[in-house]
Design goal:
The structure is a homodimer of 233-residue chains. By secondary structure, chain A is mostly helical. Chain A has helices spanning 12-42, 46-72, 77-94, 100-122, 127-136, 142-156, 160-185, 187-193, 208-229. Chain A has 9 helices and no strands. In chain A, α1 (12-42) runs antiparallel to α4 and α4 (100-122) packs parallel to α7. The first copy, chain A, starts with 11 loop residues before the first helix and ends with a helix.
Chain lengths: 233, 233
C-alpha cells in the first residue's frame, strides 16, 4: 500500500478514492456535530444537554482534522464533501428522531454501523490515511452514554423497547439504501472498499464473496449493539 | 471589590449574585452553542456551515469555562443555570429565525446587546470573576462574519433590509422583556448590576439615573451595530 503523498500523480484512481473517503467522512462528522447539537436541545436535563454538546464538539474536532488533511492534499474540502451531502442529508431527513430516545438510538446504532463500515474501508488505504480515519472514528463517549440512558428508559417503561427496536430496523434500512446510492455513484470509493484500487491497471472487479462476508460482520456487530441497548435487532 | 474566594461566608448576597451571573452566562453560552449549530444547518454553503459550527464550538468552550468555575465554587452548574433556562428559552422560542439572514442578525444584534449588558455587570464584580466574564464574552469571529454576509445579501437584494430592520427591533423588544423578568426574580443579580451589593449592610437601593445612563449606552451600541449591518435601528 503506497503512501498517499507519493501516489497522486501515479495513481489518480487511488487519489480519487481517498479524497472521496475523506470527503464523506468529513461531511459525516459535520452532520454528526449538527445532529448531536440538535439532540442536545431535546435533552431532559441540563447535565445531559451539556454532555451531548461536548460530544458534538468532539465530532467537530474530527471534522476539522479531515478538512485540514483535504486542504493538505490540495483539495477544496467543500468540493470533496459535496457529492455526499445529498445522500447523507436524505438519510437524516428520513430518520429524524421524534424524541430524545430515538436520537440516542440513532446516534449509537447509526454511527455504529457507519463506523464499522469505514473501518472496513480503512483496511484498504495507506497507513497515514488509515491512521487519520481510525482517529476520527474514535468513540467520543456517546456509545456508553446512549446505552446507559436507553437501558434506564426501558427499565422504567418496558413498552418503549418495541418502538425503539422498530426504529433501529428502520435506521439500518435507510442507511443501506443511501449507501447503495453512494456506491452506485462513486466508482473509485466503491472499488477501494473491495481492495480493487491497489492493483496495477485497476479494473473494478468486485469480490462478491468478500462483500458478503463484510455484510455478515456489519450485521453481527449491529445485532450486538441492539442487544446492548436491550433491543432485538 | 473583594476577591470572590474570600467573600462567600462573609457576604452571601455577593456570592449569590456572582453565582447568578456565572449561571446565566453559562446557560447563555450553552444555548448560543445550540443556536449557532442550528444556524449552521441553515447555511447556504458547506464553507459557511463549517464556519458557523466552529463558532458554536468556541461558545461551548466558554460554557465549559463557566461550568468549571461554578464547580470550583462548590456549586452544581445545572442548579446555577436552572433559574435562567425559562426566560432564555422563552426569548429563543419567540425569536426563532425563519431563515439564514435572520439567524445572522439575531446572533450579531442579540448577542451584541447581551455582551454589552454583561460587560456593564462585570464592572461590579471582583477581578477574578471579571476576568472570566470578559474572557467568555470575547467575540468568536461571529460579528465580522455576520456583518459581511448580511451586507452582501442587502447589496444583492436591497428590499430584505426592511424586513431585517423590523426583525432587529423585535429582537430588542423580546430581549428587554425577558431581561425584566430575570431582574424581577433575581434580586441579588439585579442589585449587582447597579453596584449595590458591595456596600456593607447591603440594601437594594437602585440608582435610577445610572440605570438610565446604562440604557443609553446599550441603545447607542445597538444603533451602531444595526448601522454596521446596513439597517436602521
Amino acid at each position: 500500500m503506497s503512501d498517499l503523498t507519493s501516489v497522486p500523480a501515479a495513481d489518480p484512481v487511488y487519489r480519487a478514492a481517498v479524497i472521496d473517503l475523506l470527503g464523506v467522512l468529513a461531511y459525516g462528522e459535520l452532520t454528526a456535530f449538527e445532529r448531536l447539537a440538535e439532540d442536545a436541545s431535546l435533552a431532559p436535563t441540563l447535565a445531559d444537554k451539556a454532555e451531548l454538546a461536548a460530544m458534538a464538539v468532539a465530532e467537530f474536532g474530527h471534522f476539522a482534522r479531515l478538512r485540514d488533511r483535504l486542504a493538505e492534499l490540495g483539495v477544496d474540502p467543500s468540493e470533496a464533501m459535496e457529492p455526499f451531502a445529498a445522500p447523507l442529508d436524505a438519510f437524516h431527513e428520513k430518520t429524524r428522531p421524534s424524541d430524545w430516545l430515538e436520537g440516542l438510538v440513532k446516534a449509537y446504532v447509526g454511527d455504529g454501523i457507519a463506523t464499522d463500515f469505514y473501518r472496513e474501508v480503512s483496511a484498504h488505504v495507506d497507513p497515514s490515511t488509515r491512521e487519520l480515519v481510525l482517529e476520527v472514528l474514535e468513540d467520543t463517549g456517546h456509545a456508553a452514554f446512549a446505552v446507559d440512558r436507553v437501558r434506564a428508559a426501558i427499565a422504567e417503561e418496558p413498552r418503549v423497547a418495541g418502538r425503539l427496536a422498530l426504529w433501529g430496523r428502520r435506521l439500518v434500512g435507510e442507511a443501506l439504501s443511501q449507501a447503495q446510492r453512494v456506491a452506485a455513484e462513486r466508482d473509485a470509493l466503491s472499488a477501494l472498499l473491495v481492495g480493487g484500487v491497489d492493483q496495477p491497471g485497476f479494473e473494478p472487479g468486485f469480490d462478491l464473496a468478500e462483500i458478503g462476508r463484510m455484510f455478515d460482520r456489519l450485521t453481527e456487530a449491529h445485532t450486538q449493539r441492539m442487544a446492548a441497548l436491550g433491543l432485538s435487532a
